Amino acid sequence: MQNKQTREGFRVAELIGKYLKGTISPEEMAELEVWVNETEGSVEFMREVTNAEKLQQEIDSYDQINLDEKWERLVEKALVRERANKKRIAGFTWLNVAAVVIVLLVGGFLLYQPKETGLVNVKNGQAMIDNDVAPGTRKAELILSDGSVVELNGKVKSNLSDDGTSIQNGVSGLKYEASEGNAQVLNTLKIPRGGEFQVTLPDDTKVWLNSGSTLTYPIRFPGKERRVQLSGEAYFEVKALHAGSNKSRVPFVVEVDGAEVQVLGTHFNVQAYPSEKMIKTTLLEGSVKVRNEIADLLIKPGERALLPVAGGRGTIEHADSEAAVAWKNGLFLFSNTSLKEVMEQISRWYDIDVNYNSDFQFPKYFTGEIRRDTPMSKLLEMIEMTGIAKFKLDQRTVTVLPNRK
Q: Which superkingdom, per the lineage (predicted)?
């Protein structure tokens, strides 16, 4: 098991790795600054490991060696020093390891996983399954007001129309042009498992839809509010809109399974899959009010509102905003996430079924950053390398097995 120094060394490595890659969040940057201010020798350490020229040289050299052997020697050396109880800077022994870890993280050689050694080499591993499943793609079904269905794949451009409204179907998704009229005409965009898609609504609000999601919306917004219905998960960038002689703001409302999210102009993510017990709303920018018959929650950027689907009072908690919208940016981003939730995301994106062997014991947790265009065999291999489970793939069904060593 890791002791406190071990965990601190790897956490520092993770933070500096994100800092160098430009993916560190404000909260993580604050955590790194605290460590620098409170740890003796940290300034010199940071200066050493963030030297761009030296870092690139190290990355190039690691591409030419056997990382498994190097990693094993490095960890064993640190453990020997640790057992000797040398009185040094807190975490210094493991920071020697962390210096190498930072190179490997930035170079893309490692996947962070807090187990016995903390990290897993994902560059040199061998696939352990016989067949493969391709990752999801851009695809959707557009249901027009007359019930006709248009298949979309994000590759073929076309011009569509519905009740006088022009709809551009391009490589970046659908874009509705603003049109005159008062009739409430609805379109529905359905994203199958294994798909994702983007739509720009007539008010210039942008919506990204994740796998297994459905969005129903009017093709024009003539009234005093803008209202859409969501099932599944979507990221919204809502355009601020003013109307009337007094130019009052027109609210934007997302209906989700007995609750609603009301905004004026903001960026937020809503996750409301039918199979889940909670409606999760994460705010990145602006302000959002989330409510049902009982609860009325106002959240700020960096917070997440949780509302029970079955009704009842919700809660507000600190959010990992980067992880919440990672799917929109082409990533799986897990931070001590339960394996069951990890497999649910994988199931939707790769359009597979997941079964658990009767001997498999929960809970298991996983931390890692993986591109969503990774073939599933490689993705499962990465998770297997952490030692928390093994997988058997048969056609489009994955069975999760205990990892018997």
A: Bacteria
Closest CA relative to residue 259, chosen from 248, 246, 269, 272:
272
Tokens representing 361? 């014991």
DSSP annotation of 326: G
pLDDT band at 238 (very low <50, low <70, confident <90, very high): very high
**Structure tokens belonging to residue 295:** 């609860």
Q: Band of the pLDDT at 232, cuts 50, 70, 90?
A: very high
| Residue 160 buriedness (CB in 10 A; 0-12 / 13-18 / 19+) | middle
Segment 239-265 shows an average pLDDT of 86
Domain 330-401 classified CATH 3.55.50.30? yes
Tokens representing residue 362 in the block:
């929960």
Cite the DSSP H helix spans in 107-259. Answer: none
What are the DSSP calls for 10-31, one per residue?
Answer: HHHHHHHHHHHHT---HHHHHH
b/e per residue, 302-311, with b = 16+ CB within 10 A?
bbbbbbbbee
Q: What is the C-alpha separation between 159 and 174, in angstroms, rounded?
A: 10
Cβ atoms of 350 and 194 closer than 8 Å: yes
Distance of CA 84 to CAs 7, 77, 88, 360, 405, Å? 18, 11, 11, 38, 29
Whether the per-residue pLDDT at 64 is higher than 70: the answer is no
Residue type at 350? Y
Please give the class, per CATH, of domain 137-323: mainly beta
Give tens-digit pLDDT for 299-333: 999 999 999 988 788 999 999 999 999 999 999 98
Q: pLDDT band at 184, cuts 50/70/90?
A: confident
Q: Please report the DSSP string for 236-292 in residue order.
A: EEPPP-EETTTTEE--EEEEETTEEEEESS-EEEEEE-TT-SEEEEEEEES-EEEE-
Rounded distance between C-alpha atoms, residue 17 and residue 101, angstroms: 8
Q: How far apart are CA 121 and CA 251, in angstroms?
A: 48
CA distance 232 to 222: 26
Q: What is the pLDDT of residue 292?
A: 87
**Which whole-number Å values give the CA distances from 204 to 74, 234, 252, 264, 319, in the listed order?**
53, 16, 12, 13, 27
